[in-house]
Amino acid sequence: MFVGEKRMSSYWKVWSAVLLFAVIVFITANILGLQYTQHTLTSNNGHFYRQKKPTTRSLPLQDDIEIRNSNYNGTIIQDHGKQWNISLAVRSSRGRTSPLKTKITLAQDENGVYRGDFITFKISARDVYDRLRVFGGDLWYATMYDQKSKFGTMGKVVDHNDGTYSAHFYAGNAGTVAFRFVLVLQREAITFQRNFLRTTEMRAAWTGTFISGNVTEKSNCFLVREGTWKDKCEFPHPKALGKSTFLCDPPKSLPCNTMSLITVNGKSGATVTMNTETKSLFQSWNANQKVTSSPTRLNIKERGTSAVRDTDIYTIPSCEADLKAPLSDGYWLKDRWVSLVCQNRKWNDVIEVQQCLQNKEIYFLGDSTTRQWFQMMVEVVGYPINVTDRNWRPRVKSIPDEYLVTGEDDYHWNIQDLRNNITMKYRHHALSRHSQIPIHRFPYVVDVLDDLKAPQCNYIILISLWAHFNTWTLDSFHERLINIQKGLVRLRERCPNLMVAVKGPHDRGDVRGYWILYDMIRILKEVFVGHKVFFIDIWDMNFAYAFAQKKRIQIHMPMELIREEVFMFLSHVCEQRSTKLE
Predict the structure, then answer these.
(1) For 98-157, what is each residue's pLDDT tens digit?
(2) Could you give the CA distance from residue 556 to residue 375 in angstroms, rounded to a whole number?
(3) What is the sign of the dihedral through the CA atoms of 300, 305, 308 and 312?
(4) Quick one: which of 223, 257, 260 has its CA closest to 436?
(5) Helices 539-549 and 559-573: crossing angle, nearest 10°?
(6) Alpha-carbon gap, residue 548 to 558, rounded angstroms
(7) For residue 161, which of 190, 182, 191, 138 has the smallest C-alpha distance?
(8) Strands (DSSP E) found in 292-353
(9) Which parts of the chain sit beneath pLDDT 70?
(10) Helix, strand, coil proportions of the chain in percent (round to 5)?
(11) Virtual CA dihedral for 106, 112, 118, 124, nearest 10 degrees?
């Protein structure tokens, strides 16, 4: 062998040994784990020691659930060959989704579910002919609860657009739990409401009262955006309503500018044609039906020998604007709402709440559900009103000690804590669906925002617009929200540190309005995202409460629930002072 060849051979032997050693180290590290993935090196006075890394992980998000490709691609469901094969033709029928035929199965081992796990079910929609559905679009709700321990949570139902859905629950409590899966509305019912009912003008109707001296006259009034009209009293307000206009038939003798009151009119100015089949979509045999094949019970095991908190498992963000929706909003346990959306906490320390809100002016702008918040806030801030389900409606006319109460009625109300300089104001939004509403005492939200010009900019704003808007067209409702958004932009230019929260809707217990209210969550989020607005989604929170506490879903939910909603609001407003979870 030549000298050069000997040197080359030695060279490769050395590098082969180095490579072999590296491979051995790599394999050993993977086999043994070396436990370095769970530790980090930290310096302390020049000495390094191993410190365990946090074991919490981020909560899975609703957006993380992969939407599988549909079997239906728009042209062909099954390809039996390159050519159209007539011999494969069959005689069959296709129907709407049936709660009696739909199958629901657990997608994991039922014996291996521990507290803190996510539980997933697969929903395979079938029609009345027991045929698999190829479209999504049905609306479901799924709940997991144990009324003995007053535990309740809602499952996030993800539509895979191919006739299958997945429902995801968070196992927030150990023990035996029950399930309920309900087909709220079939795809066809939602299609009708989206394409026909919701686009119909003049469904929002009132009776206008015109007064001049001793003369009182009434006429029909409507909200109109599209179309034409002739000889109507027009009450435009582009800054608030955009291209929509409040119209009234002219009174018999009085001029248009004498309108003083409006009253909700159950008789719509629009005619929505519904044939027998369409009407049946909202009847009890099609809508709000329990799925009979769904699992009923499951045992959730405790994780470890000691109780493990949710924050020991997952990293839960602070209550900030533009949060991503987790795969579970949270759960009820006894009288406490445990949020997985953000770090909410109890606010039972009056002194702590007063310190947070000192020198602040808080506006509650919305409907009567917002007034429930206002009443509860009065108690949380320190006045021992002992607000209950029976006494929240009447306005408190006076408060002893250092409080000042002003306002004209239940819809226009101010309370000031003189000692702490905390001012709370409630304003019901304009064009409400009540009786005998004085026009001048029901302002548009955008007008209230534009009037806020205090140099100290000490404002906190809560906005909630949903309960009175189910008869508005999508365009009119969206435009009103956009104008409020523009008002917030103008206000934030004056007050850069402005704090704003928007409260979402909840079901009112009427299946005919269920989807329209539910879709408002999407609309509200889309309008206010990116504008430093904290969105408080209470839909699942209210549903879970009803199942955990054996309560009925209605427009005005119990004050016990409202208190926890207000705690969510305070956890945002005072989040810098609420870093420690209880």
Answers:
(1) 999 999 999 999 999 999 999 999 999 999 999 999 999 999 999 999 999 999 999 999
(2) 13
(3) negative
(4) 260
(5) 140
(6) 13
(7) 138
(8) 297-300, 314-315, 330-333, 336-339
(9) 1-55, 66-82, 268-269, 305-306, 576-582
(10) 30, 25, 45
(11) -10
CA 334, CA 148: separation in Å to the nearest integer? 9
Q: Tens of pLDDT along 456-477?
A: 999 999 999 999 999 999 999 9
If we measure between CA atoms, which residue out of 312, 343, 309 comes closest to residue 326?
343
Q: Residue by residue, what is the 3-state secondary structure of 462-473? A: EECCCCCCCCCC
Pairing of strands 422-428, 361-366: parallel
pTM: 0.86
The residue written with tokens 């609309």 in the block is 523
Burial of 260 (0-12, 13-18, 19+ CB in 10 A): middle
End-to-end CA distance of the chain: 79
Say if residues 373 and 569 touch (Cβ distance below 8 Å). yes
Structure tokens belonging to residue 295:
């699992």
**CB-CB contact of 315 with 56 (8 Å):** yes
Contact 132, 124 (CB under 8 A): yes
DSSP-assigned beta bridge partners for residue 145? 152, 178
Q: What distances in angstroms separate CA 367 from CA 142, 325, 496, one per listed residue? A: 28, 25, 27
CB 168 within 8 A of CB 200: no
Q: What is the dihedral of CA 191, 192, 196, 198, to 10 degrees?
A: -80
- Determine phi and psi for 244, rounding to 5 degrees: -80, 150
Cα separation, 341 vs 326, in Å, equals 6
Buried b (16+ CB within 10 A) or exposed e, 184-221: bbbbbbbebbeeebbebbbbbbbbbbbeeeeeebbbeb
DSSP readout, 74-126?
A: SS-S---SSS--GGG--------B-TTT-EEEESS-TTS-BTT-EEEEEEE-B
Say how far apart CA 503 and CA 539 lie, in whole Å. Answer: 10
Is 395 within 8 Å of 410 (Cβ atoms)? yes
Reduced to 3 states, what is the DSSP secondary structure of residue 441? helix
The separation between CA 473 and the C-alpha centre of its own chain, rounded to angstroms, equals 20
CB-CB contact of 573 with 357 (8 Å): yes
CA distance 192 to 120: 30
Whether residue 305 contacts residue 501, with contact meaning beta carbons closer than 8 Å, is answered with no
The helix/strand/coil state of 155 is: strand
Specify the length of the chain in residues: 582
